[in-house]
Structures are given as C-alpha cells and as structure tokens.
Amino acid sequence: MVLKWEEVEVGEPKEGEIRVRNKAIGVNFIDVYFRKGVYATDVPFTPGREAVGVVTAVGPGLTGREVGDIVAYAGNPMGSYSEEQILPASVVVPVPPLIDHKVAASIMLKGMTAHMLLRRSLRFVEHGHTILVHAAAGGVGSLLCQWANALGATVIGTVSTEEKAAQAAEDGCHHVIIYTKEDFVARVNEITSGKGAPAVYDSVGKDTFQGSLSCLMFRGLMVSFGRPDPIPLSDLAPKSLFLTRPTMMHYLQTGDELLAAAGEVFANVASRLLRVHVNHVYPLSDASRAHADLEERKTFGSIVLIPDS
C-alpha cells in the first residue's frame, strides 16, 4: 500500500464526538506496519494514531468539551494523518498550555507507551534495577532511558551509530552499546558481571529477540513490543523467564486510566524529567518521505507532521 494525498469530506460530529483541526501529528513505526499490511485493517484507510489539535465542532448534547479547546489523543481511532478528523470525545485529553503542540503530538503515544512499559508491565522499574533498552535513541527508547534513569535504574542502551550513542548517553544511558560494532549480549554480560539484567525492553523484534533472552538474569522479564518471530515456550525455560507483549490500549481502558497516564507524562515533560527530541518535522503532504526515512533508519528521536493549511 502507498500513501496518497487527497481531499475527503470530514463531516459533522455526532453524539459523543468532536471535530478537531490538527496542529501537529506524531509518526510512529506502527503507522508503517499498517501501511505495509503487517497489521490488518480495511483499505483504503487514513493512517496515524497520535495528534494534537483544536476543537472546531462539538456533537449534540456533549458536555466537557468546547470549541477552541486544545486536545491530544493517541491510539484509537486511526486517522490522524489528516488536517481535520472526527474523534470520540472520550479519547482526548486536554493539553497543558505550556507544552508545545509538536512536543505534545510526539509524546502522547510514545510517552504513554513508556509509562505502560516502566510502570504497569508486570513489575515496576525501581532504584537499583539494571535494564536493557534496545533502540535507545528512538522515540520510545529515548523516553524509556530518561524515565528509568530518573527512577534510579542503571540503563544499558543499544544503538546503531555514534551519533545515536551520543544521544542515548545524554538521555540517561549509563552504558551505550553500538550493536553494529560489538556483540550486545557479550557486553551486557560483561556490564552485569555475568548475572544478566532483570528486564529487557525490546522494540526491535526478530533480530534481537534471542539475544535479549540471553541478556536476562534468572527469572528476568522480557518486554517485547516489536515484531519477533514466533518462539517456542521452551525458550523461556532455561532461566524461568517471564515474557509479556503489552499493548498500550489495554492499559487505558477507562477514562481515569487515560487521564492518569497522560497527566503523568505531561507533568514529567513540564518538569523537564522527560526531554522530547522533535528532530524531524515534515509537511503532512510529505508523509511518504517521513515513512521512507523512518524505515531506512535515517531518523532518531520523534517525527512530526504539520498540516499544510
């Protein structure tokens, strides 16, 4: 499937809905997966699962949202690669006035994903833990490293280049491994004196999965949020490992959960605990180039699309 820029009719919001004119749109690798058919959806479709915009219309009888409100959303429904879109009012959160639109658009999905991974996935990351984060200079990886460092963890990060290594170190990685130059499994075992790490956060998938298991200590936790090949359950047995494949939306099933997660993310941005690197900004009409650059690993940090109008 290819991305095609075209005009469509947005329409008016129905009961429980709002219309939002997008100001900034976050780009995530899951958008590439949908475009390439890795994740199934009806076609044709509008990609994108993260945006910040201004409310331009409110559905009949709706309270709690007004025209002019600045709101953000992440997750469902898909369709943020658009100048305007209709959204359920229940999925948006208010954006604090001091947070830049591009920052907010790039932090919602990635930030709440980091919150889920560090604070909700089976066990909490705490002071004294050692964790391994793959793609440490990526959008989610950067936030994971910063947040885990603030929680008192020792953070080991893997990256592909010297430039990304410098970024990962700035983001709180105590040890940075350039996996194109050295064996990350050997380095993790060296850093941990052969004990292994209590937890690995692997957004890459099949190229790193087996190595990630080798990096874990006995009864360690493998948090996979990439695209690994199927593995036999027996691969976990030699160290009695735990494995989880979390999905952010399963941790945001109520309005209270959504507001709490987004609120903690925005508070950490406002306090500078989390620094958001919006390193790549493209016009919305040039989304195909953004996808190409992302797939070719030419980007690091966050990518944002800005509507042309």
TrEMBL record:
Lineage top rank: taxon? Eukaryota
Q: One Pfam match, by short name?
A: ADH_zinc_N
Report the GO molecular function annotations: mRNA 3'-UTR AU-rich region binding; NADPH binding; quinone reductase (NADPH) activity
**Can you give the residue ranges of the Enoyl reductase (ER) domain?**
2-305
Q: Which UniProt keywords apply?
A: NADP, Oxidoreductase
Designated name of the protein:
Probable quinone oxidoreductase
The protein's assembly and partners:
Homodimer.
Gene Ontology, cellular component aspect = cytosol
Give the species this sequence originates from: Canna indica (Indian-shot)
Chain segments annotated as coiled-coil in the UniProt record: none
Gene3D superfamilies (UniProt xref): Medium-chain alcohol dehydrogenases, catalytic domain, NAD(P)-binding Rossmann-like Domain
Q: Matching InterPro entries, A to Z?
A: ADH-like_C, ADH-like_N, ER, GroES-like_sf, NAD(P)-bd_dom_sf, QOR-like
